[in-house]
Prior knowledge:
- 53% of the residues lie in helices and 13% in strands.
- It contains nine helices and five strands.
Amino acid sequence: MAKILLGFMGAGKTTVAGHLGGEFYDMDTIIEEKIGMSITEFFAKEGEPAFRKIESETLEELLALDGDVIISTGGGVVVSEKNRELLRKNRKYNVLLAASFEVLYDRIEHDKIYQRPLFLNNSKEDFHGIYERRMMLYEGLSDLIINTDHRTPEEVARLIRCM
């Protein structure tokens, strides 16, 4: 059984996964290893359709693993219909880490490590629209929704372990 962490960029998926213990897979890291460059570079060079294809292949591979694993997805994993189908098959174990738009925007704006193309290339209003559309998709695929606005990663991990 795989516990899948879903959520918009900046929600804390990778950070929380590090506090869960067990076998952990970060999809973005795995994809970057596969393609030999950052996702940002790949997007610019090959485009979103090529990225979504690799993302779907990676999600399918990870869901086929045996045992209790934790998978941290990229924020856009729900954009692809194929990925949504794969996530529907994992019902009971999809966890949405949710945060308000303003909290996420602030986290992303002050993140010096990850430069996110969707954030950099959109106005705040357009970025909010992307957030709203994705939140509807995440919510429709999630079995447990945890608001991370005012919780520590340890608190969120404790809630997930109780599932």
